[in-house]
UniProtKB/TrEMBL annotation:
GO terms under biological process: xylan catabolic process
Coiled-coil blocks: none
SUPFAM superfamilies noted in UniProt: Arabinanase/levansucrase/invertase
Site (Important for catalytic activity, responsible for pKa modulation of the active site Glu and correct orientation of both the proton donor and substrate): D164
Domain of life: Bacteria
Pfam families given in the database record: Glyco_hydro_43
Keyword terms: Carbohydrate metabolism, Glycosidase, Hydrolase, Polysaccharide degradation, Signal, Xylan degradation
GO molecular function: hydrolase activity, hydrolyzing O-glycosyl compounds
Signal sequence annotation: 1-22
Family affiliation: Belongs to the glycosyl hydrolase 43 family.
Active site, UniProt feature: D34, E210
Entry protein name: Glycosyl hydrolases family 43
Species assigned in the record: Pseudarcicella hirudinis
UniProt xrefs under InterPro entries: Glyco_hydro_43, Glyco_hydro_beta-prop_sf, Glycosyl_Hydrlase_43_Enz
Amino acid sequence: MKQFTVIMYALLAYFSAGKVLAQNPVIKHIFTADPAPLVHDGIIYLYVGHDTAAVGVESYKMPDWHVLSSTDMVNWKDHGAKLSPDVFSWSSGGAFAAQCVFRNGKFYWYVSVNHKSNDVSKGGCAVGVAVSDSPVGNFKDALGKALITNEMTTDMKHSWDDLDPTVFIDDDGQAYLFWGNGSCKYARLKENMIELDGPINTFKPTDFTEAPWVYKRNGLYYLVYAANMPETIEYCTASSPTGPWTYRGVVQDTSVNSFTTHPGIIDYRGKSYFFYHNGVLPTGGGYRRSVCVDYLYYNPDGTIQKVVQTTKGVERIKE
Ligand code: FUB
């Protein structure tokens, strides 16, 4: 017994000295979900939702979004809760998935929240946009009303189908807003980033559930999204951001102890990274999730290799 205790303490010392890296989850001091990384001026900013449901409670309690930053992928500074649904006077709460992008010197943080409207058609989930001169705030409501409300999309009959915004800006400067639960929707954005510039289009990628993430690599457009339930991450590619999209397969199998997962993909200092969430922290679960990061690898033809989910995580990038 004594020998066992000694070994346990030795292991603990070894781990806490940082000699064995168990980086995942990368955020351990709070429960976080829906990672949206942004690389700006050589720094990774990580925008995340914040799970605060009590143990055993089977519903989301998400009061705000946090911003973290890192330059080595291992040490993350939490800048704090930099946005909450309270900023949007028209929202009744629910800090669901969100993504922040940079355009023309400003940071636009697209969020999904509940709409407080008494008009039943406007209730349910809505997309709003906050703006700031800095990646860590202060963010204020850019529009004073929702950018997308429930009655603007009618193909899905459930009230939470306008979730999970992601914004992609193409090389020609055209910005696109993608979002959706049950079906994927997209619309062009005006250069001001706070108005739609055309109709809302709806389509259904194979197995699509929610959480689109759109980007371009080597001339090919990628639409990565949460599929099925419990969720896997799957993807399509296209030669245009408006499709047609060709289904390419699975990026991530289901995540441990969470029925959802959520993709966020960046290239940083020569490597590709895949952010997602699981429920592996002590007392964690589907409503107490944790953000992780692992490497993403492409094949020579641009297809994505399935992500290996690890507890070790990624290596620290040396300065
Ligand atoms: O975090 C709340 C919801 O869970 C998100 O909007 C979905 O993408 C799923 O991760």
